């Protein structure tokens, strides 16, 4: 049985073959989305006429039952249509952070970097926090993954107070979690603090004041999400912006200091945190997801 997995972002698509719930060594390939009019064209280029029996596609965005349209590219996915084009293949479409959640039990030790030391509770659920073009989370427990649209929720009061201390009334411009913590949110925060327009990665490396406020706000958000999701299995940061921000030398100290210290017998003060560094993590999650079908 030939299985294909795909991770579709706004700029690139990664694809690989999978077998027995794991990726086939050496099969991962990258494709530049601008080079293809549709996702089906990328798929055709990858498989080169080979038969496909099962396909799992991870996408950045909310997934409706069997159908999704990307918000930053004119691509749409329909499981039934893709399956028919592949000659009756079984097709599954999932959120990209859900895919990373499915991958957590299978990630090797060199696929994650510790940020905050702690002790993961055996069998405890883990929280995946995606920081990139957008913001979202997923909660993984065993082989199950709970979806969320956390980026569209309102800012917690603790986060708002961090902004208010530095921005005053201008803090009201940040209404949702994504408006602050996604890449565009970081750039908006930098402008609100009086900085010039610049790319997110440049802000991370050159704008210390902005990053101090951003990291303090992120720590406050993680504290709130600890109560929301009880991630006793740990918190995993994923995405390009996450790797840049959470990888800063001071970020781990700020996140550790913000952990809940005095409730639930101290269990929340010992939650470990990692950065997922494996670009193929979503693909690995898709492979595991296919094996569960």
TrEMBL record:
Matches recorded under Gene3D superfamilies: 3.30.420.40, 3.40.367.20
Pfam families assigned to the protein according to its UniProt record, in alphabetical order: Glucokinase (PF02685)
GO term, biological process aspect, one: glycolytic process
Gene Ontology CC, one term: cytosol
GO molecular function: ATP binding; D-glucose binding; glucokinase activity
InterPro entries from the UniProt entry: ATPase_NBD (IPR043129), Bacterial_glucokinase (IPR050201), Glucokinase (IPR003836)
Family under the similarity heading: Belongs to the bacterial glucokinase family.
UniProt protein name: Glucokinase
Organism: Pseudosulfitobacter pseudonitzschiae
């Amino acid at each position: 049985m030939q299985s294909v997995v795909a991770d579709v972002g706004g700029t690139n698509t990664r694809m690989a073959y999978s077998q027995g719930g794991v990726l086939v060594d050496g099969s991962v390939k990258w494709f530049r989305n601008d080079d293809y009019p549709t996702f089906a064209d990328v798929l055709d280029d990858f498989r080169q006429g080979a038969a496909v029996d099962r396909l799992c596609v991870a996408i950045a965005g909310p997934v409706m039952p069997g159908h999704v349209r990307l918000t930053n590219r004119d691509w749409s996915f329909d499981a039934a249509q893709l399956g028919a084009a592949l000659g009756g293949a079984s097709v599954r479409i999932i959120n990209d952070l859900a895919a990373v959640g499915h991958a957590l039990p299978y990630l090797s030790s060199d696929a994650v970097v510790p940020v905050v030391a702690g002790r993961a509770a055996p069998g405890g659920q883990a929280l995946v926090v995606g920081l990139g073009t957008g913001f979202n989370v997923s909660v993984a427990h065993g082989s199950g993954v709970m979806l969320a649209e956390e980026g569209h929720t309102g800012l917690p009061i603790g986060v708002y107070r961090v902004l208010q201390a530095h921005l005053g009334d201008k803090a009201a411009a940040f209404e949702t979690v994504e408006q602050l913590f996604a890449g565009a949110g970081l750039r908006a925060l930098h402008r609100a603090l009086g900085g010039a327009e610049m790319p997110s990665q440049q802000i991370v490396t050159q704008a210390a004041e902005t990053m101090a406020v951003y990291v303090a706000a992120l720590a406050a958000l993680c504290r709130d999400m600890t109560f929301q999701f009880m991630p006793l299995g740990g918190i995993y940061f994923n995405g390009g912006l996450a790797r840049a921000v959470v990888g800063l030398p001071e970020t781990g100290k700020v996140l550790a200091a913000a952990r809940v210290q005095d409730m639930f017998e101290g269990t929340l003060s010992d939650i470990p945190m990692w950065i997922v560094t494996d670009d193929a993590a979503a693909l690995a999650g898709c492979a595991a997801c296919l094996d569960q079908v």
